[in-house]
Specification:
With 339 residues, the chain is an alpha/beta fold. 37% of the residues lie in helices and 14% in strands. The protein contains 12 helices and 10 strands. Strands 5-6-7-8-10-9 form a 6-stranded mixed sheet, covered by helices on one side. A 4-stranded parallel sheet has the order 1-4-2-3. Helix 3 runs antiparallel to helix 4, helix 4 packs across helix 5 and helix 6 packs across helix 7.
């Protein structure tokens, strides 16, 4: 088996498309539109690769093709490619590989070391592929910034097994990101940040503690929400995230962070018609320097309250008012569905 980062030069070459999906290939991927063989389908591409590695039908599933490709760099991409290249040798690392892939692609907490491995490879706990920070591990190996995905694979793939077995050696790469994840999780455990579930409408109201955004120049208008902590505690199919600020609240509405992928175990999430809720929110909003609007710049984001520069603005609505608009919109949508 050999890896080559995808370019158009591979269009007509027989290949295994691992994680990303490209034409004229056998897919081992969870991306929408994949044609992965049913017997190895799973929620992450890394788990798909592990099923392939363990399968007695591996030769038939791959049709004997030796070329492995992917079209982007992130934790799940790296680990699924590495697993396919290494076959049965990857199987003893199964739990850690899956945990790291879930952390990278779904911002999920399955284990401490899973999150740490993902941060080391990907550089963020943010659901990929929205992360543009570059790979800390590639940067360490190269001794300089690496902004080329093909080169990042070239640098990182030979180091994966050492990372999996010696995660403490890479603490300088994951410590800062891990501390942010741990702090956010602790905030929920201590009741400073809270989740209120509206089970009938499957809406989770997540109210974040203001101290999560204190110090180190961290700002919710410039940085990501603590996705890993949110996904650990919220159970709804629509997340309303409320962040207190001077003069009001920052708001963003997201779908669960796995929902962009084709999943097998995790339930499929249908995107909602939020137009009715948007109308209600616009009518009630007291800050006319901002606007409630759809925002899909991130793969699972749905709605935000934004200013003219499309940055989070302070809404004057209280969280219960925003929840009520979402609940009313859901109720009206349900009534309009033909019986």
């Amino acid at each position: 088996m050999r890896f080559e980062f995808y370019t158009e030069a591979l269009d007509n070459v027989p290949k295994l498309s691992v994680d990303g999906t490209v034409d004229n290939s056998i897919h081992f991927s969870h991306w929408e539109g994949n044609r992965t063989p049913p017997e190895v389908k799973a929620d992450t591409s890394t788990e798909i690769a592990l099923k392939l590695a363990a399968s007695p039908n591996r030769a038939q599933l791959t049709n004997g093709i030796e070329l492995v490709t992917n079209n982007h760099f992130d934790t799940d991409g790296v680990l699924s490619v590495w697993t396919v290249l290494n076959g049965e040798r990857a199987l003893p690392y199964r739990d850690l590989l899956i945990a790291a892939a879930e952390a990278g692609d779904f911002s999920e907490y399955s284990s401490d070391d899973g999150v740490r491995v993902s941060i080391t490879i990907q550089g963020s706990d943010q659901a990929s592929p929205n992360n543009d920070e570059g790979s800390p591990l590639a940067r360490l190996i190269a001794g300089e910034e690496v902004d080329d995905d093909a080169r990042a694979y070239e640098l990182v793939l030979p180091r994966v097994e050492h990372l999996l077995t010696n995660i403490s050696d890479y603490e300088s790469l994951w410590r800062e990101g891990w501390d942010k994840v741990a702090t956010a999780i602790e905030s929920f455990e201590q009741g400073k940040s809270r989740v209120t579930e509206y089970s009938e409408e499957k809406i989770s109201l997540i109210t974040l503690a203001p101290e999560l955004f204190d110090g180190a120049g961290f700002s919710p208008t410039r940085h990501s929400a603590p996705y890993t902590a949110i996904s650990k505690f919220a159970r709804g199919e629509l997340f309303l995230i409320a962040i207190p600020t001077n003069g009001g609240w920052f708001y963003r509405i997201d779908y669960p962070y796995y929902s962009w992928a084709e999943t097998v175990v995790r339930p499929r999430i249908e995107h909602r018609d939020l137009s009715g809720a948007l109308r209600l929110l616009k009518d009630k909003e007291g800050n006319h320097d901002g606007q409630w609007q759809t925002d899909n710049r991130e793969m699972t984001s749905a709605v935000k309250f934004l200013d003219a520069a499309r940055t989070l603005a302070a809404s004057r609505l209280e969280p219960d008012e925003v929840v009520e608009a979402l609940r009313n919109s859901s109720a009206r949508a349900a009534i309009s569905v033909p019986k």
